[in-house]
């Protein structure tokens, strides 16, 4: 969702800001803008793409300090006026903001009563006026005063014509990163916007502010007492934010899955004791044994992989486990139990619904661990411990390699929980062998891409599709349907195969294909029976299964994936569904990395 960039240094700011905004495009946005301070403060902003903004950017936007923004509309429609930066009446102050100001309506009213004319529908505009109205001496005091008046979440960057040597930034619930260069400094809400210039960065914590000048930065709390933050080197390859020779990030990231899987497993398998080694959980064996229930929370694909994770925990550790959409959890006034282990799953570590669920649990004294990809992200920091996913930066909206690593993270967790309970050492070793083989098996599935592309071309013609599976296969079908609808914009609905005859069978026809997930397990026979019922209604079938599974003469398009341990099969069955969605979207000519209406990180409720 919304993104922030800022630059101060020796180069012209505008081109750097535009480049940074391009790097933030994948987060999802509907308008963009920049403010540059040269001989006066100039602002350009526009609904649409960053390239529309660059095309129109006047030459006179000279200046070596500036801020920029990509906006995802929340308060008011996506138009030029509502785009950020927002300025005060005199045009001295420019503000970009991520997050939501909860008391914006009251503040707008108050400002209007004082004679201020608000020109946009946004919550952010009040900030520009509040900063401008302050009579405090320094820009830091003015910003602190304005922030004291607002309730809500923010990452903000402020520029003021009277203080042309600095950008003042602040964070509360929305990430803000400072990048240190040589006689130049960058500001961004996402590492991806600045890694091409520097990998020396400092993260602000919630409730902190910073002054950024061309030569350095100082950090303090919002009461302006100093707090020490030092910049550190982040271990990230700037090339991972480039699609390189690939036509899209999604394809690149799908192909990276074998290598990413190796990273999440590395150093975490203990062959001798047939268990996993997860130091980051911050729990000893006794605490681990006391867990009576596991509750998994995530959104979107992270929720579906959470359902796969719940099965793993139940099967391997025999602990009751379930997954719930984090967006719903908090509103049920949930009962938090001391012997439940709560698990938050998130690629970005920023998803607000998941973050708020974590905060609700911790407020009530519960223990939460995170399965998170982005190191140092809000959710990672909020949790009591966790498992980093090491998938590397994921740019495409549709999650692939992070999702695979989430699954493997759950497998490691389930193995460790199981091995302090009833899972035997030989069973543990069976799982370790199976996990070790996963990266090569992922590669094997990816190697079948050409045939999947062919099948996808046929599926892309359908207006509506079913994805079905049972028990272990059902979350796989849900995730498959999610991917398909996200990027192909076709109606794709997931159902339990067992429930088809209780309703959806009415929709089966030659025009409505079904993609069926049929693992080799105790339900195979029944699954195949249900597929015969679909075939009898002339519904076209694509079946994702394993070699040698007997489909009893069904006429289907068959996709065989290698067998793993039964408990781990779901992840291998998921991969062809990614490729089907990808190729269907490609045939339909869609912008795969930036599907309409969707954002990579959903940072508003
Ligand atoms: C958005 C994305 C999904 C993602 C979900 C959770 O809805 O479009 O692809 O699965 O957020 O994101 P997270 O970063 O928490 O895994």
In spatial order, strands of the major sheet run 3-2-4-1-10-9-11-14
**Arithmetic mean pLDDT:** 95
CATH superfamily of the largest domain: Aminohydrolase, N-terminal nucleophile (Ntn) domain
Please count the beta strands (DSSP E, at least 2 residues each).
26
Termini separation: 11 Å
Might you state the CATH topology name of the largest domain?
A: Glutamine Phosphoribosylpyrophosphate, subunit 1, domain 1
Can you put this structure into words, describing what you see?
It is a single chain. This protein is α/β, with parallel strands linked by helices and 605 residues long. The protein has an eight-stranded antiparallel β-sheet with strand order 3-2-4-1-10-9-11-14, with helices on one face. Helix 9 packs parallel to helix 13 (401-419). The termini are close together. 6-O-phosphono-alpha-D-glucopyranose (G6P) binds next to helix 9.
Task: Give the SSE map.
Layout: E1 3-8, H1 13-24, E2 31-38, E3 40-47, H2 50-56, E4 65-71, E5 86-87, E6 93-98, H3 104-113, H4 125-133, H5 139-149, E7 154-160, E8 167-172, E9 177-180, E10 185-188, E11 200-203, E12 208-213, E13 216-221, E14 232-233, H6 249-255, H7 257-265, E15 269-270, E16 275-276, H8 285-289, E17 293-298, H9 301-317, E18 321-325, H10 326-329, E19 340-346, H11 352-363, E20 367-372, H12 378-382, E21 385-388, H13 401-419, H14 425-447, H15 449-459, E22 464-469, H16 473-488, E23 491-496, E24 514-517, H17 524-536, E25 541-545, E26 557-560, H18 569-587
Parallel strand pairs: 17-18, 17-19, 19-20, 20-21, 22-23, 22-24, 24-25, 25-26
Antiparallel strand pairs: 1-4, 1-10, 2-3, 2-4, 5-6, 6-7, 7-8, 8-12, 9-10, 9-11, 11-14, 12-13, 15-16
The protein binds 6-O-phosphono-alpha-D-glucopyranose.
């Amino acid at each position: 969702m919304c993104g922030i960039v800022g630059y101060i240094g020796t180069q012209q700011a505008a081109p750097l800001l535009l480049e940074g905004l391009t790097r933030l495009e994948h987060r999802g946005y509907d308008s963009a803008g920049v403010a540059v301070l040269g001989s006066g403060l100039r602002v350009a902003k526009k609904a649409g793409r960053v390239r529309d903004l660059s095309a129109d950017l006047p030459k006179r936007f000279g200046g070596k300090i500036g801020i920029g923004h990509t906006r995802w509309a929340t308060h008011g429609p996506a138009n030029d006026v509502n785009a950020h930066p927002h300025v005060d009446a005199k045009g001295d102050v420019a503000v970009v903001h991520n997050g939501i100001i909860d008391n914006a309506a009251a503040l707008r009213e108050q400002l209007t009563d004082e004679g201020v004319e608000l020109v946009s529908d946004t919550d952010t505009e009040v900030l520009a006026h509040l900063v401008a109205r302050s009579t405090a001496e320094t820009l830091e005091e003015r910003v602190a005063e304005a922030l004291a008046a607002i309730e809500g979440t923010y990452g903000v960057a402020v520029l003021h014509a009277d203080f042309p040597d600095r950008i003042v930034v602040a964070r509360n619930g929305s990430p803000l990163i400072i990048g240190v260069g040589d006689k130049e400094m960058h500001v961004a809400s996402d590492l991806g916007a600045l890694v091409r210039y520097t990998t020396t960065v400092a993260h602000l914590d919630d409730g902190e502010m910073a002054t950024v000048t061309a030569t350095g930065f100082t950090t303090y709390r919002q009461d302006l007492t100093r707090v020490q933050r030092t910049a550190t080197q982040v271990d990230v390859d700037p090339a991972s934010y480039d699609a390189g020779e690939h036509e899209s990030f999604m394809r690149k990231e799908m192909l990276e899955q074998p290598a990413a899987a190796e990273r999440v497993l590395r150093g975490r398998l203990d062959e001798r004791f047939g268990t996993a080694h997860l130091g980051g959980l911050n729990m000893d064996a006794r605490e681990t044994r006391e867990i009576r229930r596991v509750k998994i929370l995530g959104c979107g694909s992270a929720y579906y992989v959470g359902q796969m994770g719940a099965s793993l925990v139940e099967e391997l550790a025999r602990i009751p486990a379930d997954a719930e959409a984090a967006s719903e959890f908090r509103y049920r006034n949930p009962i938090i139990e001391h012997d439940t282990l709560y698990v938050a799953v998130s690629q970005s570590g920023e998803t607000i619904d998941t973050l708020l669920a974590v905060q609700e649990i911790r407020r009530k004294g519960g223990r939460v661990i995170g399965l998170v990809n982005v190191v140092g992200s809000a959710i990672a920091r909020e949790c009591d411990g966790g498992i980093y996913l090491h998938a590397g930066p994921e740019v495409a909206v549709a999650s692939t390699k992070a999702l695979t690593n989430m699954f493997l993270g759950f497998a490691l967790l389930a193995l460790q929980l199981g091995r302090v309970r009833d899972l035997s050492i030989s069973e543990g070793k069976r799982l370790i062998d199976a996990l070790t083989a996963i990266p090569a098996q992922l590669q094997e599935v990816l190697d079948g891409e050409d045939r999947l592309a062919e099948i996808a071309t046929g599926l892309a013609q359908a207006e509506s599709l079913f994805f079905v599976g049972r028990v272990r296969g059902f979350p796989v079908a849900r995730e498959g349907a999610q991917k398909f609808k996200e990027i192909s914009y076709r109606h794709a609905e997931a159902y339990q195969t067992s429930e088809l005859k209780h309703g959806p069978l009415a929709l089966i026809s030659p025009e409505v294909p079904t993609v069926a997930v049929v693992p080799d397990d105790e339900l195979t026979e029944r699954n195949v029976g249900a597929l015969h019922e679909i075939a009898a209604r002339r519904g076209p079938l694509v079946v994702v299964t394993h070699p040698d599974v007997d489909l009893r003469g069904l006429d289907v398009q068959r996709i065989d994936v290698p067998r793993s341990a039964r408990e781990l099969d779901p992840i291998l069955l998921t991969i062809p569904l990614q490729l089907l969605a990808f190729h269907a979207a490609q045939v339909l000519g869609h912008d795969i990395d930036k599907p309409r209406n969707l954002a990579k990180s959903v940072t508003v409720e």
